[in-house]
Each structure stands twice: as structure tokens, then as C-alpha cells.
Design brief:
The protein is an alpha/beta fold and 201 residues long. Helix content is 30%, strand content 16%.
Amino acid sequence: MAKVDLARVGKNLLKSCDTGESVELQSLWQDQPVVLFFLRRFGCQVCRWMASEISKLEPDLRASGAALVGVGPEEFGLKEFKEKGFFKGSIYVDEQKKTYKDLGFKRYTGLSVVPAALGKKVRDAAAKASAEGIQGNFSGDLLQSGGLLIVAKGGEKVLLHFIQDSPGDHVALEDVSKALGITAKVTAGQKPVCNDDVCSR
């Protein structure tokens, strides 16, 4: 896990998708612990499924005084993402992608994104998404990857810093709960049986 300089990263600006105002990242953890879920794209099928999965924790997070925040690298696809209700927390956009860079979330090249997108983890996650009726599109920045950052109240320390290696990588729900020291009453989505029809898309 790479070292995160919270004081420096905390100064980065994010745009609130509710109010349109810019806020410093550190304002999100000033009064409460926060789970920051960094999406690759709002239109990404796998990202939408991951957003709906982590949203299962939202009631438990809220009950324990923690916030769930989604961050996207651009506004492209945001309207549909919000309308379809994939995510239960507040949503922000990192228009400069500065936080993505500072947290070590990699960018693919035109060549490296294809094998990454066709990997088994992505196919498995896409199959889960399809099984739950979640669709996606290929609009927007296809090269950005994401991850997760959990910060203690007041920016005291990083509780979890996760960087996607493959676009299909995500943190297990129980690992999020464990990092915060809370008990969650949710279960992860069931993995569908992978066959050619489901996994070749």
C-alpha cells in the first residue's frame, strides 16, 4: 500500500454533483470517517455494479457515523448514473483527475486497456452486472482506473488504500466494514456461472 499524504491530497478540489460547488477533499473527512469510492467511469458497466455493491453498506455506514462518497473523473455519463440509482452516497467529480493521480490510480494506454478490459476479473464482474440487469456503455475516458480510500475522522489516518490493478478489481464489502471497525449486515452479490454467452461481452 503506497503512502498517502492526507494533508496534501486533502487540499485537492472536487466538484459536488448536488450543488456544483468545489470543495476540498479533506472537508469530507473533517467530521466523520469517509469511504471514498473512485470510479473509472460513470458509464462503465463494471463500475456501476461495484457502485451498487458498495452501496449495500450505506445504511450500516450511516448508522456508524461514516459517509459513503463516490468520485468520478469526469461528468460524462453522470446524469444516467444518478437517474438509475447505482450509488447511494454523495457524488463528486475530480475534473483535474488530480486525486486519481495522487493516489496512484493508474491510467492505461490505448494498447494496455484492451487486454485489461478482456481479463477474467472484468468478465466475471461484467457477468455479475449483467445478471443483475446492469448495463453500461463505452462513452467517456476509457483509460482511467480507480480504487478506494477510507480515511478516519479528522484525517487522522488512512484506514484502507486500494488501487485497482485490473478494471475488475474491487474491495470486498467485509474488508470495508473491517477497516472501519463496524459490523455490516449485507452480503456480496452472487457470482453467476460463467459461460461463453455471459463472459464474452
